[in-house]
Amino acid sequence: MIRSIWLRPSVVVSLLVIVVVASWALFPGVFASHDPLAGSPGEALQPPSGAHWFGTDATGRDLFSRVVAGSVHSLTGGAAAVTIGCVTGTTMGIVAGAVGGIVDDILMRIVDVLLAIPGLLLALSVVILLGFGTTNAAIAVGVTSVATFARLARSQVVEVRATDYVEAAFGSGGSFGSVLVRHIVPNSMAPVVALVALQFGSAILQIATLGFLGYGAPPPTPEWGLLIAEGRDYLATAWWLTTLPGAVVAAVVLATKGLSTTLRKVLG
Amino acid sequence: MAEHVLDIRNLTVDYETRGTRRRAVDGVSLHVEPGEVLGVVGESGSGKSTIAQSIIGLQAPNAHILSGSVRLRNTELLGASKKMWRQVRGTRIGLIPQDPNNSLNPLRTVGASIAEPMLLHSGQQQGSVRRRVLALLEMVGIPEPERRARQYPHELSGGMKQRVLIAAAVALEPEVVIADEPTSALDVTVQRRILDLIDDLRSRMDTAVVLITHDMGVARERADRLLVMHDGREEESGPTREVLAIPKRDYTRTLIANVPAMALRTRPKIDVDESVPPLVEVRGLTREFARGRRSVPFRAVDDVSFVVPRGTTHALVGESGSGKTTIGRLLAGFDRASAGSIRVADHDVGSLRNGERKRFRRAVQLVYQNPFGSLDPRQSVSSIVAEPLRNFGIGSGAEREAMVAEMLDAVALPEQYANRLPRELSGGQRQRVAIARALVAEPDLVVLDEAVSALDVTVQAQILRLLEKLQRERGLTYIFISHDLAVVRQISDSVTVLKEGIQVEAGDTETLFTDPQHPYTQALLEAVPGWTLLGDPSI
Amino acid sequence: MYVLRRIGQAVLVVFIAFTATFLLMQALPGDGILARYESPDLGLTPAQIEELRVLYGADEPIWRQYLTTLGNFLTGDFGTSIQTGADVSELVVTALPATVVLAGTGFLLAVVVAVPLAGLATFGPFGWLQSLMRSVPALFVSIPAFWLAIMLIQIFSFRLGWVPVIGAEGLQALILPALTISVPISAPLAQVLIRSLDEVLDRPFVGVVRARGASEWWLLWRNVAKNALIPAITIAGVLFGELVAGAVITEEVFGRTGLGSLTVDAVGNRDIPVIQAVVVLTSIGFVVINLIIDLLYPVIDPRLRRAKA
Questions:
Q1: What is the band of B2 on the pLDDT scale with cuts at 50, 70, 90?
Q2: What's the CA gap between C100 and A162, in Å, rounded?
Q3: How far is A219 from chain B (nearest CA, A)?
Q4: pLDDT tens readout for residues C272-300
Q5: Cβ distance B427 to B345 under 8 Å?
Q6: Candidate from B90, B120, B154 with C-beta closest to C303
Q7: C146 vs A: CB within 8 A
Q8: What pTM does this model have?
């Protein structure tokens, strides 16, 4: 039953995309045919071909190699952002839901404020505070997902807390801490895990957006958003410079969304 | 040969889940005549609801009707087009659903719901539809129809909602009405009035009624003929009286024997040693819930007192809103009384200190109604049962394991279930696990909150026997909370009858059941379906 | 009582948002004045810079600055842009209309896309069509908005030549940006609609309505749609946030002026007063939208109406 859901074509494709991009990030040398940073001016702005799968840019750098090299920025950035959001947010949510009262009120007002500021603006505000760069962009994106994780974790904890089996655990002599650790938290986490996959995709997207706007990694880093921004000047002549990196971003994000849906079904 | 109104021949239905098929209905035939009630009786999973759904063409999307025929007079319904189904539903077949609380569109007025079949089918004018809606409301016994028609479902009680649904079902005077567990979500006194209403409409309109029910008592009282279902097959069928008096099949016999309302068996009287103080002493117990700032608080429990001698069972009986569950939670220390006192053994439950609370928890255990919700879905059976031992620090690791095994054996759960998860168990098995968890730390008092209400009758009978056996062996004291008077009569030594938080009558079980004093107790007893109070169950 | 409490809560959230941005501003190394005027190109002496600091009130104690700024915000004075020296309120008021038109059009487009999509995904005639429609929202949220904008320009301006790259005016200039904005908005809207339609279709009353002989259309319009709308309007606040993000990106890519491009410029120049104004204004927008939704619920759902005496 559980095995069959992992064998559905859409799920297999999603997993495949993620595995491919993860191997790009881990072993860029194996996949990249050229140096992502050094260009050969004689080969500038060549369309995709057997030698240059994604074509070349204005300075003759191989675009595919640059996309491969950029994967590590996107994946680590996404992972860092999700870790920040998940750890902070989930902790806040569990504490708010489990302790209740004034602590709950205070934490949830903070969450309200985080939600009231549109994600991109929040990320931009954090970037201003911390400065531009890959790491700071990841932190900024992480901050925007804190509220989402906190809300979900809290609602889960509140729901699980009200179940008969939690009351029965107290009735069996369990202390608050032991019931929290043994029953409440484990039973609250399934949707949070699904959200991790979902937010991982969103984080990659948002980091690319910050990179595109010029607030992420500085050139000549082959960051995906930055690659697309650089290709903008050649829209009329070199379509591949913007089209192909963007398609890669979309594919990766779509794959993580698919994975999240599957996780939700399996864990649900 | 005269046509039956509804004639089902050899119906076979499969359900398909992820590639595997399961037979839900296997070659069942039935027929109904005008003005007749056919009772389709069975436990959960017997296929009775699938039959109901197939009659009206609303089976689940994963249901496959493999063969058979469903004829309404001379119209074959199996394989009918969508358009034809629409013409039949509401006009020639009406449906009275199971759960009135979720069967009305919450955003439409009651009047709009009743008018729906007329607007769909008869093309009547607004004015005449309106008049008909009011007439129907009047007919199903809803006072002030003008006002009620403008109200929304949440403003009506469960019984009222079922009346509205009945009005909508019979609005176009269908030839067949399917009543799918029409009263299982309602209190007994309401249940009786709704069944009376269905009966009344049947005789007035000469409708054929297919009454789907798990309750042998309801079927016995209301059906002309019975069809007993088990595992998708017909066990037996025939006139109600004959099936009940001389059941041909073993399954039917067990089913009838296990229906508490039809069992003659009552509890032998226990001699209570008056010199020993009772285990439980409840005095003037009151629990108020605040509602809003200014209004008077709501009294869920109002000045209730009773004592329970050690080793006996005391029942708290009442309909929904009687406060019985609140008392159970107060007894188990999950809630605080507004006034009055509870003493269990040497614990004053109202003022437990931290250290004492733990000892109290060990002495008093609660078993919940819903066995699907009271077990942690992520923990194995053995880990669930071992939890109290761990928390109370009883025994070493190996000793605990032995105690868990012994306890599982005591509740008659085979050894191999120890490592299973709750979702791999049936409802009855889960309730055994819950009982094992409650008993493993050897409590004095067990509060059973509707602990057998969610179970099928045969399983219910097994659990009741198990509870009695454990009580005898371990000298347990039970507080048995239930809405089901027949079960209460079987298992309890003394009873408190509750209505809206107030105790209306109390006493030892036999006296109370044979000679009820309070009109409410009498009404409750009369409402138990299929129960002839003092007499012979075969009538 | 309930209304007053909700309004109080809303005001509190805006107040905290304001305080947070203020603290953020203070936490920055140096201040805006230094960032703006320290550049050696300007050739200002430290004394002159100090004068400017006094002029902008940057030398006062923090609590004093805080109260002054708060008072100014309450009277609609958002301070002066460090970059251009212009009045921030004026900058915002000038930029707002273009963004409102863009966001409004984008939102309408998103609704036009999402509603039939959700309808087809739940009531659609074929199984394959339903599952196809169900996969569209996931695709839509996965497309980077900035990339989509570029793709649209590439296809409609460069390949097909339908919309001029430069010098498009009026409606013509609005089409591609609005389309860009609508995609990431329509996806969550369709998702929520599909989910709530599914949830409503699962309720017992739907079966009862079918048993009365209702067609699928009757079921959808008379019984299901309104029930499904209730959870859907809950996400209006989230959509507002998406609209703001969408405006930032599309205005940047299409070179439009508006609140979005104002923000991007401000971030680039660390123009804190502008950022602060935008953040506080959008949080007010979010809070007001959610407040309206809360007050709207009882209109749709009779269960939430106060019982009449």
A1: low
A2: 44
A3: 50
A4: 888 889 999 999 999 999 999 888 888 88
A5: no
A6: B154
A7: yes
A8: 0.87
